[in-house]
Amino acid sequence: MEILRICLAQINSTVGDLEGNCSKILQRINDAKKSKADIVVFPELALSGYPPEDLLQKPHFIKKNREYLGKIINNSADIFVIVGFPGAQKDKIYNSAALIYNKKLLGVYHKICLPNYGVFDEQRYFASGTECPVYNFNGKFKTGINICEDIWHQQGPQKIQSLYGKAKIIINISSSPYHIQKLDLREKLLKNMAVENNTHVFYCNAAGAQDELVFDGGSMVFDNKGKLTARAKQFEEDMLYTDLVIDKALSGKTAVKNKSVLNINVKGFKTKPKEINENVINKKYGLIEEVYNALVLGFRDYVSKNGFKKIVLGLSGGIDSALVAALAVYALGKENVVALTLPSRYSSEGTLNDAKCLAINLGIKLYEIPIKKLHDVYLDLFKDVFKGTKPNITEENIQARIRGNILMAFSNKFGWLVVTTGNKSELSVGYCTLYGDTAGGFALIKDVPKTLVYRLSEFINQKNGRELIPVSIFKRAPTAELKNNQTDQDTLPPYNVLDKIIDEYVENDRSMAQIVKKGFNRETVSRVISMIDKNEYKRRQSPIGIKITPKAFGRDRRMPITNKFDE
Amino acid sequence: MEILRICLAQINSTVGDLEGNCSKILQRINDAKKSKADIVVFPELALSGYPPEDLLQKPHFIKKNREYLGKIINNSADIFVIVGFPGAQKDKIYNSAALIYNKKLLGVYHKICLPNYGVFDEQRYFASGTECPVYNFNGKFKTGINICEDIWHQQGPQKIQSLYGKAKIIINISSSPYHIQKLDLREKLLKNMAVENNTHVFYCNAAGAQDELVFDGGSMVFDNKGKLTARAKQFEEDMLYTDLVIDKALSGKTAVKNKSVLNINVKGFKTKPKEINENVINKKYGLIEEVYNALVLGFRDYVSKNGFKKIVLGLSGGIDSALVAALAVYALGKENVVALTLPSRYSSEGTLNDAKCLAINLGIKLYEIPIKKLHDVYLDLFKDVFKGTKPNITEENIQARIRGNILMAFSNKFGWLVVTTGNKSELSVGYCTLYGDTAGGFALIKDVPKTLVYRLSEFINQKNGRELIPVSIFKRAPTAELKNNQTDQDTLPPYNVLDKIIDEYVENDRSMAQIVKKGFNRETVSRVISMIDKNEYKRRQSPIGIKITPKAFGRDRRMPITNKFDE
Question: Can you give the pTM of this predicted structure?
């Protein structure tokens, strides 16, 4: 009984770190060999990191990638390697997969379906490939290779590879960005593709984060009946080994002539002698735990890949900063999280105590720096020029910006990353102060709606089996505490209403009329969408954060600032 | 002698303002009729404004555009109208030109060549057209219509329209973003296209600004020998009328069969009886005056289209803020410009006096608000936590952020737009304080290199025939005055060297090795490109500003923040 062992090497690359990515790939090739893998597969653009964005427009970046690919080729003795890299041919750049065996580059597949929607700009950089290679391994099994988006199109390359090329195994390399329950989407898709084309499907995803994007791993294997036979871990690097018995069914009939299919014979390919192993199906997280893990991975990678060790954040005594602090501690360790509590004249005894209690629960260092005196000096400075005006948001924002300045001073002095604590609901309607609570390098929960903030916080307490986040924080009405007796709901509709309107307007692109039709108050809807539109300038200057919804602010939703469309 | 009068209605649309844009278009149609024009032409996406970005993903936005197009159709009695709008067909969206005559929609052209590089994302939104309409007006003259990028491709639609469709007149509608000397580029291109295809070319560009982009007008007409016969004003709205004698040469031979060409007969079209007028060729600005006008238009449009009346800026006594103040006065009037001078303990008598002198010269209101006391209170707050550390950039940045807070307080209190004064050289290397001097809604000269800041300032003095900007400002070594005896050149190479390195690295995508080869010091180049790379996070949180170079920071250059490529 001849066994084919395919290893999906679900790695965490760093954009632009060719040396580091290459050495990781070489190490994994070695590991795969030791584990008797016959084929080892790496994610889309694993060599350059994904997405490299405008680095792709530097000719020397492309050249350097090719040099490092050479190193990989030289280290492929006795194993078939598939690895993503930015390929070049004549004056065109491609999103490519190198196909390597025994120190030889057998061929390069160029991605055909280039996504140019949502967070993707691939048509900005890449030309589309035109050929679908199918590898015939000594006449024993036939394999088609394609890349990410390619497999999301029913009539795409895998159809050509299986229908004309008679491929019985499809290997897809991806760097597929996470959003809530994306894994389920992929699972459904791959299952259907396996059944429809009667192929075994090997799907290798990246695991790691790059700026706003999290690649959530969860590489998968389906057999040709559409049964899930193996799944890698979610949100971490993994080596997923799958054993497949080589039988007649894998050899495929003679290929049908088709101009797109490129038939390549892999001669002299030998599978390594081995005992068959049972395939592993790692567990799948529930919705809240999944988001939790996405935030932790995205944050940890941003911090470490940008060379930070410690982070600092403001603890207000509210639920948002409590959640961010807890996530930060889980991601980086309590010794790397520093909190400031910056009480103003309007801060209550309760919020201050909650902040202190939380810091004790989390075991993090807390500095208390009152801002009343500074606020007084500012107000005094403006005494004359603001004479005759009524106190308004101006005096409130001054306090938020004093806090921003203090947090940034810690950052400048000690090299700590300032993490902001605003959620998606606030950022949508601009319920935040530019250069105040938005000041910082990373906005960890900027794509988390307020209602989900509560659920994540509850999850954390459950997970820890105790009130890590004090129950009084959950119970207190949300407040910015920038004036007396202020609560968020003075200005905003209740969060469960607000979050639904945001979802309809931002994620589903519904009109005001359509949202009202769903049963929301017209005046409320009108006010909310007007706030969303008018605050584009704030979002544009806010730090990046992790995408967890199908449409995050940032590269995912590109709205003009100057915009008079109001429906 | 029958005369064809074509009017290029070079208008300034506002993104999303369908009501306003439509009513402007109707008014211009009326004006054109009164001036006996037979054909009136509006720019690309004149109805929606350009670029509408993700508004295009709202189905109700597309529908609303179609409704307003109906109004235009109803007002087209006795005139042929060509107007750009976002068209829809089945489930696809196109960048379209409506072709209207006598209250009828004769047809819709869909743009074929969709730019997806630089500032453009058209493949994100639009499907490509496949048909090239050619209009045969009563057998008397033949006209092909296409859109912007279409005419930049030698083998593009105008080739098909002239070669197969036998069009003798090509009308191209554009919203072509400005960069330095772009007009010359266009002129050269259109001339070549006219000669190569033996066609008269009518090029109608937009005139106005949208966020980062300026559309610089300068619509043009070339005859079929490649001679420039008319040119509209640059940087303002205009109605450019061109008279063409209808002779046999315009009738075109019978079209050759080609699947892309769509032959449309316009029956009953009557030219209006008229005397021939001489065509107008408006003057072309020199390089510096051109940039000056781009900045003024871009700024004026941003301010007015976003509903601001007044702006506020900090005057440091340096050349950057002097230039911004002068530009603002020219764009908005001196009564709408308010300046603050915010001296610190390190500000010299000289800079303070220069700021005052400049304000007097410009006739703008100046408030003086010293920040020393606030700085002292901050330092006192940090006394314990920063104990044992040496003063560094932290203490400097605190001052810049105090200024940011003060400027924003004026903005919040009075509704004035804060305009920042940083230039491209500073922003490139991150020689600026986030939430400090970068705090504001619009960064007027963010794409202007320091060396060009001086030239623009000299131009302003020349233009005014006096030292509007005091000569002492030109003479002083650039300094941030955030510590004693500080100058920019303590940290940065001389600006004439720095600007050249930035140009090579940012705009030309050259590698470190290539730049060194051009004769720059290796250590300097290495330091500069490392600063450019490391400060992507600052640029990402900086306000938008006007693109004047071929590659501006912002939508034009999309670099990852997390990025370890350093060559």
Answer: 0.96
**In terms of Cα–Cα distance, which of B364, B264, B315, B366 is closest to B473?**
B315
Phi-psi region of A138 (alpha: psi -120 to 50; beta: other; left: phi over 0): left
Is B560 within 8 Å of A386 when comparing Cβ atoms?
no
- Side-chain-side CA neighbours of B442 within 13 Å: the count stands at 32
Q: How far apart are CA A406 and CA B51, in angstroms?
A: 39
Which of B565, B566, B567 is most worth mutating to test chain A (most A CB atoms within 10 A of its CB)?
A: B565
Rounded distance between C-alpha atoms, residue B436 and residue B420, angstroms: 10
Residue whose C-alpha is closest to residue B314's, from B343, B278, B348: B343
What pLDDT, on a 0 to 100 scale, did the predictor assign at position A328?
A: 98
pLDDT tens for A186-203 read 999 999 999 999 999 999
Instruction: Please give the Cα distance from A195 to A184 (Å, whole number).
Output: 17
Are the beta carbons of B239 and B8 closer than 8 angstroms?
yes
Mean pLDDT of A256-261: 86
The domain segmentation of chain B, as residue ranges, is: 3-270, 288-488
Chain A residues lying within 8 Å of B116, measured CB to CB: 116, 121, 123-124
Structure confidence by residue, pLDDT tens digits, B155-205: 999 999 999 999 999 999 999 999 999 999 999 999 999 999 999 999 999
Closest Cα partner for B529 from B558, B509, B556?
B509
Q: Is B507 helix (H, G, I), strand (E, B) or coil?
A: helix
- For residues B198 and B133, what is the distance between their CA atoms, to the nearest angstrom? 18
User: Among 2.40.30.10, 3.10.450.40, 3.40.50.620, 3.40.50.2300, what is the CATH number of B288-488?
Assistant: 3.40.50.620
CA-to-CA distance for B507 and B551, rounded, in angstroms? 5
User: Cα(A323)–Cα(A450) distance, rounded to whole angstroms?
Assistant: 11
Place of tokens 């090299």: A415
A513 neighbourhood in chain B, CB within 8 Å? 60
Fold of the CATH domain B3-270: Nitrilase/N-carbamoyl-D-aminoacid amidohydrolase (3.60.110)
Residue range A288-487, CATH number: 3.40.50.620
Question: Beta-strand (E) ranges in B205-332?
Answer: 207-210, 213-216, 220-222, 228-231, 238-245, 261-266, 311-314
What is the distance between the alpha carbons of residues A339 and A323, in angstroms, rounded to a whole number?
Answer: 13
pLDDT score for A363? 98
Task: Look at residue B53 in the predicted model and tell me its pLDDT.
Answer: 98
* Residues of chain B where predicted confidence (pLDDT) is lower than 70: none
Q: What ipTM was predicted for this assembly? A: 0.96
User: Do A560 and B513 make contact, defined as CB atoms within 8 angstroms?
Assistant: no
Q: State how far residue A58 is from chain B, nearest Cα, in angstroms.
A: 5
Residue pair B145/B266 in contact by the 8 Å Cβ criterion: no
Closest in B52, B408, B544 to A435, CB measured: B408
